[in-house]
Design a protein that fits this description.
Pfam families: NmrA (PF05368). It is a single chain. The chain is α/β, with parallel strands linked by helices. Helices cover 40% and strands 15% of the residues. Helix 1 (14-23) packs across helix 7 (192-208). The radius of gyration is 20 Å and the shape is globular.
């Protein structure tokens, strides 16, 4: 019988959890291998449905050695940091481990910077570009291997990292201090769970007919339904919190010195706010404004708009 095992790694976390939830409605559970650093975070109901659960960690090479055993397709969700070199190394390790176990196709979750091209000035995008290039190199060297890189749209739910960690549950903050004036070009926000759903639908297409899957060795962009400037984004936040909120442009040093920013962008003890600030340069150059119809086409409906998504979050208790 043909081996149709599909691994999802990591299968917990926000995007991973969404992907698995939707994939379980599209692909038989006994063909899914759910891999996580913390297997206990994977719902017991998934095991009860006959999904295989395994433990592995990007930062522990020995755990990756057999993580992809008997797997032919891997959905690889990017390492959860934006430290360039460390992230690239982690991705390559997982990819090499997968290929060594016999994986023949890798879906990889990239990010919607670079404007659909192969260059970005955003630090956060560099490891993604490295990984895409590595996958392309492997596919070029071995015709039996293929990949699909999915540039997941900028999560609507991730707006705090672009707005100096503005808190919609707070009643005090009215000024957003960032190294950007808020003018267009902006960002094509996309709802995280819809990205997970669309990614699962792509995976299901491959599962159903791998030989006829038209997106092998391609980079796909799943972006939201329209571009929002940062000013428009903040105006939406104003309507949601029912008070005036505005952007004040500051220097990168002033931005990085804010306690909320310093705290939110300190990664493994490293202060990364100035590196993150390159995202504003990329936004200014139009890297994140690209609107693609692909998310809508895959979902078969109009994606949810930014304000609707954030308003629902604001009303949650």
């Amino acid at each position: 019988m043909e081996n149709k095992k599909i691994a999802i790694f990591p299968a917990s976390g926000k995007l991973g959890g969404s992907l698995v939830k939707h994939a379980l409605g599209l692909i038989p559970a006994h063909h899914l291998v759910l891999i996580s650093r913390y297997p206990t975070k994977i719902p017991e109901s998934y095991r009860d449905a006959s999904a295989t659960v395994r433990a592995a960690d990007y930062d522990s090479p020995k755990t990756l050695k057999n993580a992809f055993s008997q797997v032919k397709t891997l959905f690889l969700i990017s390492y959860p940091t934006f430290q360039h070199e460390h992230r690239t190394k982690a991705h390559k390790l997982a990819i090499d481990s997968a290929l060594g176990s016999g994986v023949k196709h890798i879906f990889y979750t990239s990010l919607a910077f670079a404007g659909g091209g192969d260059h970005s000035i955003a630090h956060v995008m560099q490891a993604h570009l490295d990984t895409e290039k590595y996958l392309a190199l492997l596919a070029n060297e071995d015709s039996s291997f293929s990949y699909t890189s999915i540039r997941e749209g900028l999560y609507s739910e991730s707006f705090p990292i672009y707005t100096a960690f503005f808190n919609i549950k707070s009643t005090s903050t009215s000024g957003i201090l960032i190294p950007h004036d808020g003018q267009a070009p902006g960002l094509a926000w996309a709802k995280l769970d819809e990205l997970g759903e669309a990614s699962a639908l792509l995976l299901a297409r491959f599962y159903a007919a791998p030989d006829h899957f038209s997106d092998k060795n391609r980079v796909l962009l799943l972006s939201g339904p329209r571009e929002w400037s940062l000013n428009e984004t903040v105006q939406a936040l104003s309507r949601i919190v029912e008070r005036e909120v505005s952007i004040r442009q500051v220097s990168v040093d002033e931005y990085a010195a804010q306690p909320s920013v310093e705290s939110g962008l300190t990664i493994n003890g490293n202060k990364m706010a100035k590196q993150w600030a390159t995202a504003y340069d990329a936004i200014r150059k139009g890297e994140t404004k690209v609107v693609s119809s692909l998310l809508r086409d895959i979902l078969g409906r109009e994606p949810e708009d930014f304000e609707t998504t954030i308003r629902a979050i604001a009303t949650q208790r």
